Predict the structure.
Amino acid sequence: MRWTVLIVDDHPLVGQALELSIRAAYVHLDVARVLRATEAEEFARVGGARVKLVMLDLMLPDATGFDALLRLQQRLPHAAFAMVSSRTDPHSVAMARAFAAKAYLSKAVPVEHLVNAVGAVLRGERVY
């Protein structure tokens, strides 16, 4: 079975850049992308067994990141979660840690950093 990285981000440019970069760097992985938390929940219902990593935007149109994180963690108990956000305040980072996210990644860093974080999280590392 091929593992899937699920990108949940409502900004098309960010989502597409992540998708293309992860596909190029990890040819053994499938990459799926949705724009909303509800779409991610539906994806989890249909193809959740293959989801190895969820890259979740903190602020989505239909949920705050932590609300979406908690709902998706229930639906994808074996997946790792990486929060991806333009917000890097200490409170948001601490909340991500408290809710067992494996990574908290800034959208302000080069895309290569985000792509490298995918590999690190899949190896079981935490990236903050």
